[in-house]
Amino acid sequence: MSERVATELTYEKGRRMLVVAFDDGQRFELPASYLRTHSPSAEVRGHGLSEPKLLPGKDEVAIVGIEPIGSYAVVLKFDDGHDSGIYGWNFLYGLGRDMDRNLARYAERMREAGLDVPAGPA
Fold first, then answer.
1. Mind listing the pLDDT tens digit of every residue in the chain (122 residues)?
2. Of 82, 75, 79, 80, which Cα lies nearest the Cα of 64?
3. Residue ranges per domain, the chain?
4. The dihedral of CA 70, 81, 7, 3: what is its sign?
5. Is the dihedral of CA 117, 88, 91, 84 positive or negative?
6. pTM greater than the 0.85 cutoff
7. 3-state class of 60 per DSSP?
8. Fold annotation for 6-112
9. Angle formed by the axes of helices 99-112 and 89-97, to 10°?
10. How distant, in Å, are the alpha carbons of 76, 84, 102 from that of 97?
11. Closest CA to 116 of 53, 54, 32
């Protein structure tokens, strides 16, 4: 995938939804809970894990800060204290493009682990 550029980034606090538009016209609404459980951070991704670690109890998490990193990424700060993931534009684009598949797989893994599956975005 070529390097994507975000042209709009808005957080809708009441919906706990990050809205990201890209230079190719794609626009994604990404729930804060999804962004938290699929963070690019080492805490969530480990070192070389093919899938993110399971993080139960994050379905009500909110974003409390967004910090730009140059012109290529942002750090999202969550109300549970997590703030170590750098969300590059290509990473956010991939999360948007693959959200349904990622959420379905995450729910499947939660069930397999005997954990409560979040209801999903409102």
1. 679 999 999 999 999 999 999 999 999 999 999 999 999 999 898 887 788 999 999 999 999 999 999 999 999 999 999 999 999 999 999 999 999 999 999 999 999 999 988 766 54
2. 79
3. 6-112
4. positive
5. negative
6. yes
7. coil
8. NE0471 N-terminal domain-like (3.30.2020)
9. 70
10. 19, 23, 10
11. 54
Among 18, 22, 64, 14, which residue's Cα sits nearest to residue 38?
18
Q: How far is CA 54 from CA 19, 105, 117, in A?
A: 24, 11, 11
Nearest to 107 by CA among 6, 34, 4: 34
Nearest partner of 14 among 103, 111, 122, judged by Cα: 122
Q: Give me the residue label for tokens 């975005």.
A: 121
Which tokens go with 41? 């951070």
